[in-house]
Each structure stands twice: as structure tokens, then as C-alpha cells.
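Case study B.
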Amino acid sequence: MAAALDVFAAQGYRGSTVEQIARNAGMSKANVLYYFHTKDDIYAAVLSRTLHVWLEPLEQLEPDGDPIEQIWQYTRQKLQLSRDAPHASRLFANEILQGGNAVGPFLQSELKTLVDAKCQIIQDWIDQGRLAAVSPLHLLFLIWASTQHYADFQPQIHALHTGDENSLYQQAEHTLRLIITQGLKP
Amino acid sequence: MAAALDVFAAQGYRGSTVEQIARNAGMSKANVLYYFHTKDDIYAAVLSRTLHVWLEPLEQLEPDGDPIEQIWQYTRQKLQLSRDAPHASRLFANEILQGGNAVGPFLQSELKTLVDAKCQIIQDWIDQGRLAAVSPLHLLFLIWASTQHYADFQPQIHALHTGDENSLYQQAEHTLRLIITQGLKP
Amino acid sequence: MAAALDVFAAQGYRGSTVEQIARNAGMSKANVLYYFHTKDDIYAAVLSRTLHVWLEPLEQLEPDGDPIEQIWQYTRQKLQLSRDAPHASRLFANEILQGGNAVGPFLQSELKTLVDAKCQIIQDWIDQGRLAAVSPLHLLFLIWASTQHYADFQPQIHALHTGDENSLYQQAEHTLRLIITQGLKP
Amino acid sequence: MAAALDVFAAQGYRGSTVEQIARNAGMSKANVLYYFHTKDDIYAAVLSRTLHVWLEPLEQLEPDGDPIEQIWQYTRQKLQLSRDAPHASRLFANEILQGGNAVGPFLQSELKTLVDAKCQIIQDWIDQGRLAAVSPLHLLFLIWASTQHYADFQPQIHALHTGDENSLYQQAEHTLRLIITQGLKP
DNA sequence: AATGAATGAGTGTTCATTCAT
DNA sequence: CATGAATGAACACTCATTCAT
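Model:
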């Protein structure tokens, strides 16, 4: 339910009410609970749908091609996602910030497996001398953090940035590309 | 009140109860509200005390000395702060994520003034050819995001990183230094 | 509807839901309410059907024959009914316990008429010196109470009686016969 | 809480609302739940207080004295209790009727122990030829049923009995004494 | 005749806040 | 200063009933 994503992303699980979700969706509270039996169920459904969107770009990181270009493309996609689906990013941030109990199993199984595989690819690039000797995992952290930041900390960003959204993301892309492509050179 | 910081950082404003804060502080609920009249007041007090801790490192960014070294030292301090005061970081992240209404005025006045001043310093460095031509504001965003990430997304980080906290922060520092110092070279 | 009797007998009117009745009957909730417009209607229908089963044995109490034997046969039939139709007994007990609003009219008209007639028969037997000088109405109360008890208080009885159901009812019959036949001797 | 006993006795657990109990006690709903955290807790407290009242008369059944007189005195006390504390009787009846889940443990331990002991006393009397050869347990059932009936089935009794409450209980006592004292003669 | 969908009115429970002591 | 007691306003969830198909 898109309405639920809106609400959960804006206020977190505890701060959201079924009433808000229902009104947002143009239904009655009781009718929302007719489809999803509990508030937890709504949250779990929204979360699981969002998580897969979140993983997709990383899956496309492949060993072929230029390492720095690959990593930059991944970063760009994540930045784009922050712009296009900020709700999803905030939902995820809220969830993790408040303990991540609902995604704990996902993090430790699915995500861990995927991340381990991709870190191996990056490590291979490093071992081949095609990339600076960073820690692959922490490189991912840096990419995630610096791109999701634009979705998660939007109010702060809007308070400090003067100019429209287009210029904001152009500057973001420019700065990230410069630092990442230059910073990762072997 | 340190007890309130704990609670608000862990569960956000809406998720926290005065009862929890009181128990955490070893007082009665009524007594907490004797000092801070409302829950909002507790929150505002905790938030304002935390914000100043948050600004301090940035204030020390001075035009003298080597630009890249100065920026790296700032980044290092922020990373250290994430490790030493994760509660403060999470409190701030929760606040911004949920709209930032309570810090809106602060962001637009105090923080904006400080950030503008420091961006000017960085821009001067760039104009002098001593730093890569990044957008100063977005450089700050990258530094904030990539350091606070270690406090705000702790559950995710612990799920993906195998090893103790020391090695975690050593690798983080190593990776950040490499990318930032090399990425910012003119 | 037998399904409704099951549910109402087990949980009383307020404790039962139309959903439970429907599922128990293998229908949809909406379809149950297609036949019986409201929950009240279902209850009234079940109750009225049950009441007639409940009266039947008393109607067979006739002035002919041996008084004590007649009364014992009635008692035996009621005990048998408690065993064979405990649901009906519990439905009735629940209804009366919770005020008997739905059966009030029935009690004051149909039942009162029947009971008055039968009490007259018993009183005649007493006046003829063929029965101990009990109050006929209270004799009926004792018979009703002591037989329905086996249906209405089943959980208590099962907790205190060790042995199977056959032995339970044999002992019940034995004890009731002894006390009633000997106790009613003139 | 006397108010809770009133409400639970009249409508059973499911039929009662915390709101009713609160209004009946002259408090707010929230204040009732300040003392008893849940509806279940209120019910459990009321039930346990009532159960002990319920056991007391049986405890006084002693092996000394005339058996029939002892049993009659017990019956009389139970009848008196039905008159004086009908709420307690109805609370218990409602509980058992609806499965007795809340008193199950009590029935199987405390009550069973007490009943076993008292049944042994009665059995001894029978073995000594001082009492008719009834089943002691079922004698207790008959006494319980026929006395509690006056509390539990009050609406029915009032519909069938013409006359005031005094005459009602006089007739009840007369009839029960006659049948029990005569029926139990060896 | 049958059912999935929809909803208003409750119902138990939580919680920030007030008050008396 | 400190706290137990009290309460109105929410909130998640249930349920009898209605409606469209």
C-alpha cells in the first residue's frame, strides 16, 4: 500500500496510526484492517516490498568492465533512487534507527549474502591493483550513507541548500563523482 | 537529562514515553514533569543540549593549515563522535527523519550561518587551487553522512561486519581517509 | 441452526460472534445474516427451538400411576437430556444467568401455565397422602437443578469425578433415585 | 472490587466492559486500569476473592455429630449463601458455564483436595450404616445444584413463584430439608 | 442464494498531563 | 521536591451490520 509507505516513512512505525494510513488511502480504518489484520502486518508488507527495491541496484554490480566506472554507476543509481523514492529510503532509515527488529533476519541472511558476494568482487579488483586499497564493506557504507543522506535528511538539506532540486542533485552528483572516481584510483 | 537522551535516541519522539524516561532516570513520572512541564519540553531541552555538541567540531575548521588535512581532521572527529556519542547522532537523525519541526529554526539560523561561513573557507581553498573543485556544501554532506552512518545504522552495520568494534572503526577510518584525502586532491 | 446452538451454548450471547457461527456452519458471515437478519434473530430462533425440547418431559407428567415413580421417571428423563443435549441446557442456563430477557415472556406465560398445571397434580398427590408434604414448585426446582447441573457445570464435574462418563451418570442416577424416591415417601 | 463483582456476575466475562465496572464504581475507566492492569486482572482478583467465600461452608463439614444433621446444616448454609451472596454464585456459574478456564487450576487442586477429604467423611458415615448408600460426590453435586439454583436461576424462579422472597426461601428450606433428611436415612 | 468488501460503534489499553497530598 | 492517584484523548483491533455484485 502506497499510502502506508507514505505514512510509515514520514513518522516511523510508532508514530504512525492506522487511521492516518486509512485516510491517506481513502478508506476506513476498519477496511484497512480487513486486508492487513494488524498494524504490524501492514508494516511488514510495506517493508518487504521496499527492501527488494533497495537491493536491486547492488545486484547489478558485476565484475566485468572498469571497476571505478562500475562503482560510480552504482553510486549514481543509488543517488537517483534517493531522489525518486525518498519514502523508501526513509522507511528503511526509520526502521534501522529504531532497532531494526523487523528487518534483522533480512539483514543477516539475504543482505549479508549479497553484500559478501559484492565485496568479494571489489576485493578482487583491489587485489588486481585496479582500485585503491579500501575496505570494500566500508566503501559500500560510504556510498549508501552519502546517497541516502539526500532522502533521509531532506529537511536539513533544504535548510542549507539555496536553489532548486535540480541544481541540488547536479551538485551532489558532481561532488560524489569527483571524490569517488578520484579517491578510488589505485 | 541523560536518561531522556537514551530513550529518545532509541525510539524517537513518538515512540518514547515519559514513564520510560522517568524509570530510566530512577524518578517518578510526576517528578520528571515537575522539572520539565511537558514531554515536548524534555525533548526540546535534550535536543538543544545535543545540537551544540554536534556543531563544535565544525567550528574548529579554520582557514589556516593544509586544506586536505583540515578536512580530514574534521572527518575524523565526526567519526569519533559517532563512536563516542551515538545516542546524540541518533536523536538528531530521528528528529530530521520525522520532519525536523523541532530543529527547523535552528537549522535555518544558527546552523546555516555556521555552514555558510565554513563553505566559504572551503570555496576559498578551491579557488586557490588547493582542493578539488567539489561543491563545499555537498562535501560537508558527504562527511556528515558517511560518519554519522556508523551511529545511525548500527544494527545494519553489526549485521554485515564480522569482527569487533575496534577493527570496525579502524577500517572505517582507513577507508574514509583514503577516499577523502585522495579524492580531494586538486 | 445447530452450529449457532454450539456457539451460543459455549460462550453465551455476548461472547459469541456471527463469524464463529458462520464458520461453524461452513457458510459465510454474510450468508448467515441473509437468513437471520440480525444476531438477535439467530439467538431467538435457537432459543425458541430449544425451549420446546426442554418442556417436553414435563408435559408427560400425568396424574395416573404411582406418584413417586412418575416423578422419578421425569427426573431420569431430565438427567438423560442433560447428557444427550448439554448444549441446550447450557444455552438456557446462560440465558437465565444473564437476565433472561429473551425468555422472560416465555417464562411468564407458557412455562408458568404448564408448571402451574403440573404443580397442581403434585399437590393433589400430596393432599391424597401419596407424597411427602413438599412444595411442588420447589420439588421441580430441585429436579431441574440437580439434573441440569451435570450439563451446566461439566468442567467442575470433570475436575472432581475420576472415571468415565458412563460411571458418572450411573452414580448420578443411583444417588438421585435413592434420595428422591426415599425422600418423597409420605 | 464490589462493583466488578456486580458486573461480572450479571453479564459474564465477555459481556462485561471495563467502562461498566468503572461507572459502577464511580471511577474512570483509566483509573480502574491503574489498579488492575488488565480486564483479566480484575476478573482474576474478583474470582479468587469469591472462591474462598464459596469454600468456607464445606470446610466446616466435620465427622463429629449426627451425619444427616451435619449435611442438612451444610445445605442450609449454602442456601443462605445463595440468598445473601447471589452475585458470587452467578459469577462462579458464569465462569464454569463458559469453560471454567480461569478456575481450572483451582478446581483440580484446592477444590479437589477439599472435596476428596469431605467425601471420605461421608463415605465413612455410609460405611458405618448411618447414612443411605449414596455416592458422596453426587450428594455434594445435588446440594450445590439445588441451593445455587436459587441464585443462578433467579429470573426463572421469580417468574414461577408468586409471593415474596421470605416465603420463597421458607418453602425452599422446607422442601430441601424434607427430601434430604428423609432421603438420606440409612 | 451467496459472498467479498466496507464501515460505525464499540472495547481494552496506553499515555501525557493534572491534582491532592 | 516528590509521588500516588486520577482522567481525557488517543489508538489498535473487533464486530454486527450493510452493500454491491
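Chain B touches chain A through 56 residues (CB under 8 Å). The remaining cases will be described in the next quarterly update.
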